Amino acid sequence: MSSTLKISLIILAVLASLGLVWGVVWAAQEMEVFGINQRVSFQDIQQTQPGTASEPQQAAPLAGEAPDISFIQSIDAACTQPEVGSNTCFINWTYLYVQAAPNYIITMTVEIDSKKRASFSGFFQQSMYIPAEMFSLQVSCGALGSGGNANLGMQHTYAIRARDTANLKSANYGSVTCPAYIPKHVYLPVLRR
Amino acid sequence: MRKLLLPFALALLLVFSAFGALYVARGQSPRGLDGGTVINSETLGDNTRQITAPDGVSTDQLDPNQPNIGFIDSPTASCVQPNSAKNECFINWYYLSVDATPNYMITMTVKLNDIGYVARYSGFFQTSMYAPHSMVPQGYAVPCGPLHADGWGNTYAYTVRARDSANLGSANYGSVTCPAYTP
């Protein structure tokens, strides 16, 4: 191989190496500038256990430690009968709230009598607040005494669950008793023939 | 000396060609889901939020961490089935909010991808826009759908877009799952 060719190959190799290093550094900077982030971290740590229907329970993840996700606050579970004499009642809460900082909240769901009724999806948020006016769930009021209380109607169980990006979970289990459905009696006048 | 002239010339030619190729590649900036040049983007699971500029708008002076228009804040996408005896669910957000200071906000739109546009908010000499859930008291009605393998009903993908007076765009792409209708 001629010396000219050898020298040219060496020069070319050196310049190509420099160019390659420069290209890699440049590409890394470009990625940083455009802020393309993929932040996903999942670790299934705990499954919460449902409690009894009669008393509200909060199942906290990792009892005894300081979890990122908080207890769910589900204030004032209410069952209301806006129209007296109808079998239509509505369940809602003053608000539902959960926070998972520094993680993001993925979902919070509401089940009534083991049936999924509402789903709330997080979008790059570390807490979730759902006021009463955002939803209300229709249920049957039930007959007088059907829920175990002689003066009230049916008892409905609920489960509120939340999950964050670290796959930590929090859940509230409870029940709410509705006013009774007492059909309106229409008394006809007694007419003599 | 004359011996080295040719290799040097050849090497320089190759280096310039490589730099030229890199320059062309640099011009091909990342493209957003709306086709614009991406200024900032984040992805988390099914959710993606992006700030983009259309072709022709210079992005050289923009700080990717603080462009004029911000990410749209669209917390708590909800799907609620008020009456379990009906195949009717309602989608809503806690609120939608975006800030474009010092520019003016032109529009913000909400699209349920399978259904179409369901809301369009128009700015009026305002640098930010805020649409609380109470503006759509019940939400947007959609079919809940049948019970799927995951125990839920239909999933609806959505796109929330905003545009400011500098023609910068911001968009959120996500989805919300509804309870199933099980008669």
Plain-language structure description:
The complex is a heterodimer of chains A (193) and B (183). Chain A has 193 residues and is of the alpha+beta class. Chain A has one helix at residues 3-33; strands at 36-38, 57-59, 73-75, 78-80, 88-92, 95-99, 105-112, 115-121, 127-131, 137-140, 155-164, 169-177. Chain A is built from 1 helix and 12 strands. In chain A, the strands form 3 sheets. Chain A has a 5-stranded antiparallel β-sheet, with no helix packed on it. Chain A has a 3-stranded antiparallel β-sheet with strand order 3-6-9, with no helix packed on it. In chain A, a hairpin with a 7-residue loop joins strand 4 (78-80) and strand 5 (88-92). The longest helix of chain A is centred in the N-terminal third of the chain and has 31 residues, at 3-33. The N and C termini of chain A lie far apart (133 Å). The model of chain A is unreliable at 28-55 and 60-64 (pLDDT under 50). In chain B, a hairpin with a 4-residue loop joins strand 10 (155-164) and strand 11. Chain B is built from 1 helix and 11 strands; from the N terminus they run H-E-E-E-E-E-E-E-E-E-E-E. In chain B, the strands form 3 sheets. Chain B has a 6-stranded antiparallel β-sheet with strand order 1-2-11-10-6-7, with no helix packed on it. In chain B, strands 3-4-9 form a 3-stranded antiparallel β-sheet, with no helix packed on it. Chain B has 183 residues and is mainly beta. Chain B is 14% helix and 39% strand. Chain B is elongated. At the A-B interface, helix 1, strand 1, strand 8 and strand 9 of A face helix 1, strand 1, strand 3 and strand 11 of B. Strand 1 of chain A pairs parallel with strand 1 of chain B, so a sheet runs across the interface.
Which features would summarize this protein structure in a list?
heterodimer, A: 193 residues, five-stranded antiparallel beta sheet, 16% helix, rod-shaped, B: 183 residues, mainly beta, Immunoglobulin-like, 2 domains, six-stranded antiparallel beta sheet, three-stranded antiparallel beta sheet
